[in-house]
Design a protein that fits this description.
The protein is mainly β. The chain is built from no helices and eleven strands.
Amino acid sequence: QVQLVESGGGLVQAGASLRLSCVASGRTFESDRMGWFRRAPGKEREFVAAIGWGGGSVSYADSVKGRFTISRDNAKNTVSLQMDSLRPEDTAVYYCAGAWDTTWRYWGQGTQVTVSS
């Protein structure tokens, strides 16, 4: 059974940085596409960023492009999200997810990020 555990969330002021990490267990995820999503209060879950199995093929939501950077370390079964220049509108629960085909197949429990103005 695949398990994803996120960490690194917290409360920060606007303009600050946070680094989220997601560790996978129960599956060797080096061939999987990994991604980050978020759900803000009262809103639908939305895509944030994704990265291909080799670390290439990265993509970002327009709202985070230029501020967030996704990366992965397959040797450590870890995917990270570096978030810079945080804004209050980035406040959300952030989820890590993995896919071995075109569907996001497994999810973490989420980590809260709160950005105060």
